[in-house]
Write a structure and sequence with these properties.
The complex is a heterodimer of chains A (352) and B (328).
Chain A (H helix, E strand, L loop, with lengths): L1 H8 L1 H20 L7 E3 L2 E3 L1 H24 L7 H18 L4 H25 L4 H20 L4 E2 L3 H8 L1 E2 L2 E2 H19 L2 H10 L1 H6 L4 H27 L1 E2 L8 H11 L11 H21 L6 H16 L1 H21 L13
Helix pairs in contact in A: 2-13, 3-8, 3-11, 3-12, 3-13, 4-5, 4-6, 4-11, 5-6, 5-11, 7-11, 12-13, 13-14
Chain B lengths: L1 H4 L12 H11 L1 H9 L3 E6 L5 H17 L2 E6 L4 H14 L3 E4 L8 H9 L4 E4 L12 E4 L2 H16 L2 E8 L5 H14 L4 E9 L4 H14 L8 E4 L2 H13 L9 E6 L2 H8 L5 E4 L5 H12 L7 E3 L4 E2 L4 H8 L1
Helix pairs in contact in B: 2-3, 7-8, 9-10, 11-13
The chains are: A mainly alpha (352), B alpha/beta (328).
GO molecular function (chain B): carbohydrate binding
Protein name (chain B): Monosaccharide ABC transporter substrate-binding protein (CUT2 family)
InterPro entries (chain B): Peripla_BP_I, SBP_2_dom
Chain lengths: 352, 328
């Protein structure tokens, strides 16, 4: 009884988590050694570590995306911003003697500028977010190609190598960076009123303005934050392959990020931000990718298998399915109650 | 160039002989005639764009070859748009060039403009890609044979390992002709060696990041390098990503795992010089020579093959440092 109530109350949280665990378990049963983790050269080594390692760029982007979607917006330009910030990192590392932290600050600044551009289009000019960010999505990759002059610019820097592939306390440094960023965002969103304000703006702009919330500035800063997150992701992705690939870096990553936010149970209509569940969504997507790569599935089936599983997860989470499941359990309980002759207390028919 | 390409097409010009058209235009456009008369042949070249390093070197190579022969090359960059290429070809026809080189951005939709060129009796040579049109509409195609590239890689590997090797394969983008044909050619050769098998095969989408991620998962799934003898990557960029993945997993490329790939981009020569890659096969960008020769042959009334295969050589580490210096 008590357990059932817990399930009802946390169904929304449990669905993505259980999906993730289920996908990992199924993969482990298909691919032997998937769960094995051992120490190599003083750091952890295994497929599960690969998932964390590979998930960081998407996780950072999804973090920014979750906030933007919370304002009832969307940011399609993050993939392009990744390409731009990666290009800035590579070109500055190769062509200048600037210290690496200046290069990183420049790349982060470029990402924030891109976010500012999106934010101004959306909040000042009131252009629909999907259209406003589409502009940079298309143009951004061109800008990145201009910066790299169409070539893959390779570079060498010990600090960037460490960001891309280094380890600290047995875990990849980039995972620590992502954890730090997630913790910071959760702290700001949940321990200050900012998260509430952003959700209020997403739910109802006019009402939030009437209660005195500076909606325009909040929306603007959400896009700047998304640009910053994308730039961090871009630096990591460039550091990962020690080069800036303007054509392919972060290609279609915006869609993975949006999917992660949706898998977390957020609505694209805004008003809700689920940061930690979004990260679970990212892990679901990355686990699927890594699982497919290690499984030995023929390449032609990759995308179909991935899409089918994602669809299954989304279906399990849909409000209609949840309603059916809870109805099913209620009926069963009623039947059980009536057969033992007890009166229905009414608790069983409680809506989730 | 841009000004000329907006000139409307003049199909009736096809009724005249090429030289007659040239004279008509030399009266109308004295500037054009000056450049046309000075050159031996006037060739129009419609290039797709400059989306990759390879395409840039192809453009440079064709321009250099035209200059070496003293031809007047009219170059048009289509920026990845077929409509721009069609406009460019029509403007070449209107200018009455002696031949047209076309690197088609897509396979379909060329019939009409190819017919216009044929009516004007201007030979069209397709460069590095084919089109889905009646072969009688163009003179020839000058391009690499992806299957032969795959076969060459497999032959080298078979010789190197005495026909005994567990291979992991990094495929190109799923469904691309380069990926399909390179795989077909490779599989055909290793089929002759019962002890050569592909143990893992996945798509790395022709990118460095893709190659790295897939190689990481191969190394995990195979429990390190002990069961992998060689890596065959459908392009150099994926091989370069895979080399990073090997080094990070403590595996020594070329010593623990042989690395063979295709394209011959500059960075793979650096990797070979550093002892991290074994062999690469050039996707030949020097297509100008064979294309111009085909146009000359057709002017002399000789028969030209419909596909002139222009395959590049296999490069090994011994010349890598010199090649890298040349291509950087």
């Amino acid at each position: 009884m008590k357990k059932n109530n817990f399930l009802h109350k946390h169904q929304k949280t449990l669905a993505p988590l259980l999906s993730l665990v289920l996908i990992i378990l199924i993969t482990a049963s298909v691919t032997p050694g998937f769960l094995s983790i051992r120490m190599v050269d003083g750091h952890l080594f295994g497929s599960l570590l690969d998932i964390l390692h590979r998930a960081t760029p998407t996780a950072l982007v999804a973090l920014g995306m979750a906030v933007v979607i919370g304002t009832r917006g969307i940011d399609l330009s993050v993939g392009a911003v990744i390409a731009i910030s990666g290009a800035v990192t590579a070109v500055l590392t190769v062509n200048t003697d600037w210290p690496v932290w200046v290069v990183i600050l420049c790349a982060l600044g470029t990402g924030m500028l891109c976010g500012l551009w999106n934010g101004i289009l959306v909040s000042v000019f009131n252009i629909q977010p999907i259209v406003a960010t589409l502009i940079l999505m298309v143009a951004g990759r061109g800008i990145a190609q201009m910066i790299t002059e169409g070539q893959i610019v390779t570079f060498h820097s010990d600090v960037l190598d460490a960001i891309g592939n280094g380890y600290f306390l047995a875990f990849p440094i980039r995972v620590w960076i992502a954890i730090g960023m997630i913790a910071l965002t959760v702290l700001v969103m949940r321990k200050t009123a900012l998260g509430l304000f952003i959700e209020a703006v997403g739910a109802n702009v006019r009402a939030s303005r009437l209660v005195g919330i500076e909606a325009r500035l909040l929306v603007l800063s959400a896009y700047v934050f998304s640009g910053l997150c994308a730039a961090m992701s871009g630096i990591i992705l460039a550091a990962d392959i020690r080069g800036a690939d303007a054509n392919n870096a972060g290609l279609w990553l915006e869609l993975d990020a949006i999917l992660a936010v949706v898998l977390a149970g957020a609505s694209l209509a805004g008003g809700r931000i689920y940061l930690l569940l979004t990260i679970v969504g990212v892990l679901i997507i990355q686990t699927l990718t890594t699982a497919i790569l290690t499984s030995g599935l023929p390449v032609q089936y990759n995308l179909v298998v991935k899409a089918t599983i994602i669809l299954a997860v989304l279906l399990v989470q849909s409000p209609k399915t949840r309603q059916w499941i809870s109805d099913f359990f209620t009926k069963k309980k009623r039947a059980a109650n009536s057969s033992t002759g007890k009166a229905d207390t009414g608790k069983g028919s409680e809506k989730p | 160039m841009q000004a000329l390409s907006v000139r409307p097409s003049l199909p009736w010009l096809g009724a005249f002989k090429r030289k007659a058209v040239l004279t008509t235009f030399s009266v109308l456009l004295p500037v054009l005639s000056a450049s046309a008369m000075a050159a031996d042949l006037t060739i129009g070249f419609s290039q797709i764009g400059s989306e990759s390093g390879w395409r840039t070197s192809e453009t440079q190579s064709i321009k250099a070859e035209a200059e070496r022969r003293g031809y007047d090359l009219k170059f048009s960059d289509a920026q990845q748009k077929q409509e721009n290429q069609i406009k460019a070809v029509r403007s070449f026809i209107a200018q009455g060039v002696d031949g047209i080189l076309l690197a088609p951005v897509v396979e379909t939709g060329w019939d009409q403009v190819l017919k216009e060129a044929q009516r004007a009796k201007i030979p069209v040579v397709l460069i590095d890609r084919g089109v889905a049109a009646d072969p009688s509409l163009y003179l020839t195609k000058v391009a690499s044979d992806f299957k032969e590239e795959g076969s060459l890689a497999a032959s080298w590997l078979a010789a190197k390992t005495n026909g005994r090797c567990n291979i992991v394969e990094l495929q190109g983008s799923v469904g691309s002709s380069a990926a399909i044909d390179r795989k077909t050619g490779f599989d055909a050769v290793i089929g002759n060696f019962p002890n050569m098998t592909i143990t893992r095969s996945q798509s790395g989408s022709f990118t460095r990041a893709g190659g790295k991620e897939v190689m990481e998962s191969f190394l995990k799934a195979e429990g390190g390098a002990k069961n992998i003898c060689a890596l065959f990557a459908h392009n150099d960029d994926m091989a370069l990503g895979a080399i990073l993945a090997m080094k990070e997993a403590g595996v020594k490329p070329t010593k623990d795992i042989l690395v063979v790939s295709i394209d011959a981009v500059p960075d793979i020569f650096k990797a070979m010089a550093d002892g991290e890659a074994n062999a690469t096969i050039e996707l030949n960008p020097h297509l100008g020579g064979p294309a111009f020769d085909a146009i000359l042959a057709s002017q002399d009334g000789k028969k030209v093959d419909k596909w002139i295969k222009a395959n590049g050589p296999l490069y090994l580490p011994d010349t890598a440092a010199a090649e890298y210096a040349k291509r950087k």
